[in-house]
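Lecture notes, unit on binding sites. The following record was shown on slide 14. It pairs a sequence with zinc ion.
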Amino acid sequence: MAINANAYTYSVPASDTDIQIGMRVLVPLGNKQLIGIVLNLYEDNPNGNVTIKDIVCTLDSRPVVTHSQIQLWQWISGYYMCALGDVMAAALPAKAFDRTYSLDNAAKKQKKPSDFADETDDLATLSESQRSALDSIKHQWQQKDTVLLYGVTSSGKTEVYTHIIQQTLDQGKSVLYLVPEIALTTQLTSRLGRYFGSCMCVYHSRISDVQRMQTYKRVLDSDSPLLIVAARSGIYLPIDNVGVIIVDEEHEQSYKQTEPAPRYHARSVAIMATRIIGAKVLLGSATPALESWYNATTGKYGLATMEERYRGLSLPKISVIDLNRQYHRKEMYGHFSDPLVERIRKELADHKQVILFQNRRGYAPLTVCRRCGYTPRCTDCDTPLTLHLRERLLKCHLCGYSQAMPSVCPQCGGEMRTIGYGTERLEDEITQLFPDAKTERMDWDTTRRKNDYQEIIDRFSRHETDILIGTQMVTKGLDFDAVSLVGVLGADHIWSQPSFRSYERAYQMLEQVAGRAGRKDKQGEIIIQTWDKDNPVFTYLTSHTYTAFLNDQLPERRQFRFPPFYRLITVVVRHADEKKTDDAALLLAKRMQQVFGKRATGVVVPLTSRVQKLHIRHIQLRIEKEANINKAKMMLTDLIRETNGTAGYGSVRIYADVDPM
Ligand code: ADP
Ligand code: ZN
């Protein structure tokens, strides 16, 4: 159902004496009746003498949204420049907008309050460095609301979190534990479930709407403290009783929602939420975001570090293989360099497991006619189609469009060839190389059904699989003891994206992949194949000096006016008609430059300039940290409104993406 994004004023009949802020009400709007949330109550009509309609009725016997939630919604709406109704629609489970649905029914239908056992294990005893990190975090929370825990992979951050959780629960306060979506389907929840049992609940987009409603209600009503393990949308829950918010893997890009509005970053919202509810934030990562690192080293946040892996394990050894040299000497098998093949062979002989990482799914990202050079592209997006050989389809990875794989060039009848490679192709090559090894592929295509993901993980942890080939999915929080080697195939395209964050992101991704190797008894090894072996990322990565890498990035960020020194807002202009998109963007850019001077760029054509039939243009705004950002946002809102109000541009979609990734 469409949700109306505005706030309206209604009168309350004298008979509705029980109405309270945060209750759902049925209201007339136009010739329809809609569900709304009471945001405020006034004694007199705040609009003066303007006549207003009565509400139809209240739908709840008590508030379903708390004052602090409403306060947070208002902050999100202002900060991220979107309608309050967009925040409300994102914040509440869709069932909340179903008139026949009452929160109390949700609870009655729930047989068992939790999926986790009542019996629990004792927490692990912390090592000395873990204990001192814990003490340091608690100490710094006395002065600062937000503390960053920077701990290398396998240093035991999760164990430190469990102690914080336990201590917070013991004080009668709840804990909100945010994790990237994918981590929720894995080992983490069962690990936490063993410690915290039935006082734990999970909240993410893969549970049903009814379950979401039940968890919402449990959080709203619970008399006893809870551990709420949630994806980014967990920040919308009624968390008034939360004492600590943990943001695990805080550098993860998936904490930022890009579509639809609100385009929020869960880390920023978490920090704001704790100000409203009077709680503390713990950000944790082995590869903190540059912004967080900067805030932690300039005194805005506290900082606690764990520089050693648990039980003194060494960090993995990282080797870089120069593809220029390998191809020149013809020391390649398919897309695998000879040294990588030899290492895989050795690990398999020792009954070890291997992970191969390639962040691209499908067989090949490009098909081209050998004769006329024709490349099949998406009809609705400005992007070439990826070949999926198993299904014999060409697919658009942006919109899902697919067509049959042509046997010859549809233009000239010539022979088609493929360029580049994805996980499917690597799977074929590896199977040819090691026909006796058990190989599995984990990517979006092999994990479509509900249990696929878990089953692949389970087979791999039981060592029924020798080689796991996968996209980013293999990098997230998995802990396999027998993995001694991780091969990274296509590292280069991680930083081929034109973003000021591309090196940072590449480092983070590679260090996370590396963290999968050698977690128990011996040093793991990472082999990275690259065309760009002199890239500065490798200099730091091979010596595991992440913070030196970050410090090295800072001067460039300052020089080119990027975060953490400037705040960015990307204004996005979209329309089906290309000329109209260009013209509206030009008009807006011109007005922005008049108002903001050099802080506004001209019109930028993004790398993918058309998605799902809509042309896209960007205008970037860079505002100094010291400047009044609220004022800038207000002026920008006016300019956008003005552009939309110009004759012919009413249908052009224009919105702001604040703190874009
Ligand atoms: P991180 O979250 O920093 O990557 P984990 O908390 O997952 O690290 O710890 C890595 C491994 O070491 C896990 O298997 C964990 O159970 C084990 N471990 C860490 N600290 C302890 C401890 N104090 N006692 C027992 N096992 C620990
Ligand atoms: Zn498409």
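Take-home: The domain at 128-311 is CATH 3.40.50.300 (Rossmann fold).
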